Amino acid sequence: MEVIISEPDMVSKRSKFAYSVGHVLNDLTSSMWFSYLLVYYHRIVNFSNASAGYLLLIGQIADAISTTFVGFESDRTRTGLFHYGRRKSWHIIGVICVLCSFPFCFNLCVECKDSDLWAQFIYYTMFIIIFQFGWSCSQITHLAMINELTHKDDERVALNSYRYAWSVVSNIFVYTIASILLGFHSSNDETDITSVDAPIFRKLSFIVVGIGFICMIIFHVFLKESQQPAEETEQRLQLSLTSSGRLKRMTWIRFLREKQFYQCGFIWMCARIILNVTQVFLPLYIIDTISVLNRVYVAIAPLCCYLSGLLASFPMRAINKALGRKITIIFGLCFILASAILFWFIFDLKDHLRIEITLISACVLLGIGTSTTNICSFSLASDLIGLNTECGAFVYGIMSFADKLANGIVIAIVQQWNPCTLASTTTCALYYRYILTFIPIGVAILTILMILSMWKTNIGGNRHEVIPEEQNTVERTNALSHENECDERSSLIA
Question: What is the pLDDT, as a whole number, of residue 368?
Fold first, then answer.
């Protein structure tokens, strides 16, 4: 006789929709953060390339530290603020921090725009740290809810796909609005971005915050987090008995002892490095390397990336089921390699039309590749957690810590050695060509090697511990009794 404690399986359409928009505020602000931070602080605020890179690094370090803290505390929280839910309580704290700080990150220093640059650097640093803390609160708790909403593999992949699809929609929205503002705003130079364009980014930041706020209302009103105490949830999971034995309770120390934890974390980190590095340097590549194109392509090119990524996210559930996670990731990495090769050859083209076609083609391939690799890396993390939701936020927190820190360091190093000034040069053009070609290729190759090293690994499997027959019989009896108590309680509530 086997006793299987009932688990959440199917997620309603309303809950899926509410969950999927729960990260939109983060996605909108992240799109603007990575795409236009270096452009804004270097070309509008007039920081040096190195200083702009350090601001991004400070933000990434603050985010990395916050994700670890939030991961621990979110798992330890029991019922949340006023019994609102342990995940949603942290999520709403993050939303408030983002709403209050992000507009200041893309506005000229209030009452100090004519001050020394070091004073403005400190001013922006304060708001960036608050923004990144809030961003991590929302991100980690939103990811951790996936494994608590459902334990079905197909449903988890679906939630990851819907989440990423809305992320892509958010990016598309940002780039569409940016292209409209850049296209219609009067400027003496149609190929460059200067300090006179500061109002564009101010308007864009307010639009982003406004739309994100509406989506957060939908998430918190229509998605109901389980009000069951965390101890009872863990007890029900740990009493799950099958012929394989009892599900092993995982702690953060046990996760750190698993080899597959580091393998999945490395793949997650690499997928995010490719996405963020290309997102950060693509606008600069267009301005300084392909300097013949209108500046509106600073928004159009990323827009093409995310449109193709959105289309690629729809069949992801079926592709994952047919090919498996690992083959699907390699499939996505091949698209990234192809896009990097096109970015290399664009520089040698002379015809204006051919440049535009090749750029759009490279962006489409990049969008398909990054969409595929990111969805699959999130799904691998879900597989790693499995039924062990007691440490779900910790796992996502550590993986996010690694990717934020790695991204910040890589981008800061690139900016530290950046030869570009406000006047474009041949050296500057070649520099961004190298960045958009060799970093994605190098990271993609490392990712493929890591996937091959874990080809036969059963991610998240083999976590059942064998128990003596006498203890097994007792625990099955206790499990049945516990299940009956839960059913009676549910009947009384109903």
Answer: 94
Question: Is the backbone of residue 324 left (phi > 0), alpha (psi -120 to 50) or beta?
Answer: left
CA dist 208 and 200 (Å) reads: 12
Contact at 8 Å (CB) between 45 and 206?
Answer: no
Calculate the CA dihedral of residues 231, 378, 175, 135 and round it to 10 degrees.
Answer: 30
- Interval 189-206: pLDDT, tens: 556 777 888 889 999 999
**What pTM value is reported for the model?**
0.76
- H/E element, 247: strand 245-247
Which domains does the chain carry?
13-223+257-453 (1.20.1250.20)
Encode burial over 317-356: b for 16+ CB neighbours within 10 A, e otherwise: bebbeeeebbebbbbbbbbbeebbebbbebbebeeeeebb
At 317 the three-state DSSP class reads helix
Rounded distance between C-alpha atoms, residue 267 and residue 443, angstroms: 10
Which 3 state secondary structure label does DSSP give 90? helix
Are 172 and 303 a contacting pair, CB within 8 Å? yes
Q: Which of the 8 DSSP states describes residue 82?
A: G
Instruction: Outline where 257-347 has alpha helix (H).
Output: 259-284, 297-313, 316-323, 325-346
- Extract the residue ranges of the chain whose pLDDT is less than 70: 1-9, 78-83, 185-191, 226-248, 422-425, 461-494
In a 3-state reduction of DSSP, which class is residue 464?
strand
Residues 6+ apart with CB under 8 A from 184: none
Please list the residues that pair with 245 across neighbouring strands: 242
The counts of H helices and E strands in the chain are 17, 3
